[in-house]
Design brief:
With about 110 residues, the protein is mainly alpha-helical. The chain has four helices and no strands. Helix 3 runs antiparallel to helix 4. The chain starts with a helix and ends with a helix.
Length: about 110
């Protein structure tokens, strides 16, 4: 169960990063919704990480949390056309994903 919580918390890291980007691009009242989503998702993401760390070693949990967040945030940026999907970027993101899977296998 800790691993599921950790993966979901990593996914929420991508949510808060995307919400922060949207909040920084918006003005006035349009900034409230993404800012609220940012605050809620950062709290849930960090809370889930803390919960997972009760049974997963700290270094492993943090690396997986960040890795999942990086890969999903980058995928969001590619889909939203904020970043270009270059071959090098996709290859390196695949490497990060492989490392996250590797940490699960050896942990």
């Amino acid at each position: 169960m800790s691993w599921i919580i950790l993966i979901l918390s990593g996914a929420l890291e991508a949510v808060w990063a995307a919400a922060l980007h949207r909040a920084s691009q918006a003005t006035g009242r349009r900034r409230i919704a993404p800012a609220a989503l940012f605050l809620a998702s950062v709290a849930a993401s960090t809370g889930g990480l803390a919960l997972a760390m009760q049974s997963i070693p700290t270094g492993t949990a943090y690396a997986v949390w960040v890795g999942v967040g990086v890969v999903l945030t980058s995928c969001y940026a590619i889909v939203a056309k904020v970043e270009r999907p270059t071959a090098a970027r996709l290859l390196l993101l695949g490497g990060i994903a492989a490392c996250v899977v590797g940490l699960k296998v050896v942990a």
